[in-house]
Design goal:
By secondary structure, the protein is an all-alpha fold. The chain has 10 helices and no strands. The chain has a single domain (3-199), classed as Orthogonal Bundle (Tetracycline Repressor, domain 2). Helix 5 packs antiparallel against helix 7 (119-146).
Length: 223
């Protein structure tokens, strides 16, 4: 590979990183080519040399960042044998991505904005979220098959609960990073989530029966 092609590839990657910062801060609609070019210290002509338009730059950035996240989660964690450990690791990766760069913030920002404004981008995010939920669902099912997790919880619903809780926590963090403790929130959630999924020990009362028994004891004491 020639030095010129290497330099061109480096410049393209630098542009994507700068564009990600702009998209994360302002969203797609409010991020103009002028704004990106100014942040990069380039003319619009130089930017168009690498990308034909703003949407092409956006899709290059989104595709690269989604693939990086999915590789860390789906590929790297798929081989973790213990389902509970795998879920904790997924939560850890989400926390890492949310707090160490603007990439995750860009994804969440654009995911909401694209719902009504960019069907192509919305479809890309929808497919990514579907793959993520299916990955989580398979982890839960592995735990259920091994007897580690309760069989009376729908694995798909558990995956949706996990995804909604993590993303909801991230949005609060992006809104108020100084006072919202994302690490503590995600840690508390994942432990409660795994506790909810965990099967009772042999001989222990089923969760619903235990709850009813506790209610009956409370009623007897108050009567």
């Amino acid at each position: 590979m020639s030095a010129e092609r290497v330099a061109r590839g480096d410049a393209r990657r630098d542009l994507m990183d700068i564009a990600i910062d702009c998209f994360a801060r302002y969203g797609f609609q409010a991020t103009s080519i002028d704004r990106i070019a100014k942040a990069a210290g380039l003319t619009k002509g130089a930017l168009y040399y690498h990308f034909k338009d703003k949407e092409a730059l956006l899709f290059a950035a989104v595709t690269k960042r989604l693939s990086q996240f999915e590789r860390r989660v789906v590929t790297d964690l798929a081989a973790v044998p213990d389902p509970a450990t795998a879920l904790r690791e997924v939560a850890r990766v989400c926390l890492d991505h949310a707090t160490k760069s603007n990439h995750r913030r860009m994804i969440v920002t654009l995911m909401v904005e694209a719902i009504d404004t960019n069907p192509r981008l919305a479809a890309e995010f929808r497919a990514m979220m579907h793959r993520f939920r299916m990955f989580l669902k398979r982890i839960v099912q592995r735990g259920q098959d091994s007897g580690q997790f309760r069989a009376d919880i729908a694995a798909g619903v558990a995956a949706e609960v996990f995804t909604g809780a993590i993303m909801g926590a991230e949005i609060q963090y992006y809104q108020d990073p100084r006072t919202f403790n994302l690490a503590a929130t995600i840690t508390a959630f994942i432990e409660q989530f795994i506790n909810w999924l965990s099967a009772p020990a042999p001989g222990s009362p089923r969760p619903l029966r235990a709850h009813r028994a506790a209610e009956q004891r409370s009623r007897r004491k108050s009567s």
